């Protein structure tokens, strides 16, 4: 009996990779075990999460798409059997390449100006670990629409991505748990979504005395480990965060409790703000002015004579304000520092007010604020890698529905300002941005810190000036036109309003080119017919798509509408080197940085092809081989340039490289890049060892040293630039006669104010001829560690496990609420929203707000094997796709106002 | 001779079920049979509520009622304290299941696969050759211990490190230290079975 252990990685969630070994006995993969070789390197001692154990079942799932298939039924619809016919890979690639070359011969853009080719992948944080060199094919192609969403903008941490990266290079924001003493979590569910590193760190920290407070509408698995659960009404987190600011600034002596040096020298707090809401600037240099208490006069913020910047007070100062476009005002009025405006701004947000909005008792808010300040240890320092840094062991972290959609800006802003007040931003113990996706270089966020205007970091945004604004969408979600903060990086298409294409396809707004169905749509590891809102509407649009090529694991609800299915090579069937360690999403900050290899562990039971093979073949057939190989040489898909100083491992662009050749070069380039050219490991070495790492200094977790070294300030608390870009965007849109984005334009405020966010969802009923009172409950989702991201809903083994975790396969209701409704545990209940209904079995719990119903993850399958029999309700079936539910960043929240009733005759009432 | 035991720190468990799955993969148990389930308990009333995850497995009791109840002598206690079942001797009476206060034994009633009555080729290779009509149970991964790997699969994999395995007879072992220092408790002490699994709260 021959037994082998093959090293691979699992990247089925954004908190990857888990490093593991697959046990292969007599050619059959039969086991999974943590890769002990990296026990000392991996931050969770090489542990492996529940999903990784399902990989072998995933490989051998009998319901897989086993060969390429061609649709023979030209009619598309849920009730139209595609009538698949098996074909060879050659035939399948011919079919796709024929479409692509025809499209290329015509023009890459259609009559409306949209790319004729569109591709949709699932989570942007995961798909790249499985795409092989397909990104190089897309780079070689030309304009491609990658902004037709499959749930992006709703299922991620959207506002945090955009604002976090704007304020502190924080595409994702994490608490520095190993140095932290106190975490205030507003719905952050890191024990479900933070991977093994998250749960390991949290467990270690709890054992070490970390105090964790979980504020959320239902008691999540992360809340289960918390010291205290504080129930809150959905979408009122900003109110509590504002009240925390109020307590700190109005009920304590902030001169004593806050980190004054940080506020004075590392924020925009001292910048004087003029009567029009913009910084008062020096007329000559244009630099923002600061009132110097020593000289009793205004000085430019970087003037060497400045010694005592004022945070508070009213001063008579002369200068100019520069507003939107050409607005300029000469000012000689009493003006105040931005910090003083902040203090004034939060005055109305008392704990009593917040209690009336959120149900969180005022006394609790005061206690939390007090504890936050008490743990902040303002003035303390700690040595990290020989560098003395401030130590602020307090962190506020936010969850998905808090950072997404309306209220996301306000919540993210208040959280980040609370960190700034005590200097707990980008220092040990505080909140850290762990990766950048909009700034470059993507692999080194510290190197992305560069001086910009007004003493802040340079911020790449989509321009809003009259000269530079892109007045027409270049892809269907229009992120360059509508969302300045989305920037224009390779990630930006997924960070725009990714549901707008679906929303506008059927009914475009005024003065806007209707999004056309793409001539060819390629889909991989995504299922928008399940994961987007208003799933029925998605299906209706899919019927109109002329040609869909789907890389398919099993039949699912989206590829039901495809024209050709290409069997997906799963995790254990394909080859890919991927960057690991350093700092990455969520809580992935390691003491090592390197690359790990995923490789086929045995012969596939299906007729699959590695995606790199497919990409190469398509490039060849489409006549773009040279451009494709050159894109690989630049690093597209392989994650590291093959040609750079001090090495040249580039591929010959005149011939198609084999997959092994591509990844061999990648392995060698990766190790060279990690070791400044000193060491080189080839594919063979990686296949035997799995991964290669070099030490990653802990001090690189923190932005603070880079900011200090360049004398930069965080653009907090005042948002002058956001205010200006909002007004300019309003001007541009109004010049085109577009007013349907006006609601979103209201978000651009210098100091964000509370709006009645819950009411935004309540009002949806009115648009559908219903009364808000008919829908008294909020339906929410929550992540499941078993199911999130992994595309494993068709594995019975995971269903069997998940059955034991509260919330799976039912709807969680508060026990008292259920009693009032006459619903017993296990009863069938119907959830109705203004746009749809769904049903599920009642799961009665105490740990859920009385006005809240919870449907875990995303289900509602009708085509996916196994999942279609789970009878699991889904929020997406009843959530409306609605422009009014879309915030300025193009994001929405997984939240629906619903009615709940027992289905059994007479047992329930609304 | 050691007496193997386990300490489970309930403050660390987050109910991720990695242990459950690792056990399943390690032991190749048939569909529906899980040696290492995690139970969930809600304590208190809204708004003062706690949610507790309780990993469970065979307690490998010092005074094991299942061994006493077994009419065929299939269940026995090894010298190292591990309770094992000899499926060739098991008559399927399920008296052991009735006697166990912890619900830790499982009757293997019918051979089938995850996807239906017929097992796939993978399942034929993956599932261990358990005999239909017999009782099966956690063995503390005795097969690993016998080859010198002193960590059961559930312990090896737990991402929170909430499970610790070791020798209860060694006062200097980590398990003994934890039990003393943090007042480890056994499940259902009133049953008088003296479990080898201790819980920390």
- Give me the CATH architecture of chain B, please: 2-Layer Sandwich
> How many β-strand runs of chain A?
33
Largest sheet data of chain B:
4 strands, mixed
**Radius of gyration of chain A over all CA atoms, rounded:** 27 Å
Could you please say which CATH topology of chain B applies here? Answer: Alpha-Beta Plaits
Radius of gyration of chain B: 17 Å
Can you tell me the overall shape of chain B? globular
CATH class of chain B: Alpha Beta
What's the average pLDDT of chain A? 95
Biggest sheet strand order of chain B reads 8-1-10-9
Strand line-up in the sheet with most strands of chain A: 5-4-22-21-20-6
Number of strands of chain B: 10
Give the structure's gist in a few sentences.
The complex is a heterodimer of chains A (910) and B (201). With 910 residues, chain A is of the alpha/beta class.
Describe the 3D structure:
With 910 residues, chain A is an alpha/beta fold. Among the domains of chain A are: 261 residues, Dimethylsulfoxide Reductase, domain 2, CATH 3.40.228; 147 residues, Barwin-like endoglucanases, CATH 2.40.40. Chain A has 31 helices and 33 strands. In chain A, strands 5-4-22-21-20-6 form a 6-stranded mixed beta sheet, covered by helices on one side. A 6-stranded mixed barrel of chain A has the order 28-32-29-31-30-33. In chain A, helix 2 crosses helix 21 and helix 8 packs parallel to helix 15. Chain B has one domain: Alpha-Beta Plaits, CATH 3.30.70.20. Chain B contains 7 helices and 10 strands. In chain B, a hairpin with a 5-residue loop joins strand 4 and strand 5. The radius of gyration of chain B is 17 Å and the shape is globular. The mean pLDDT of chain B is 95. The interface between A and B is large, with 63 and 48 residues.
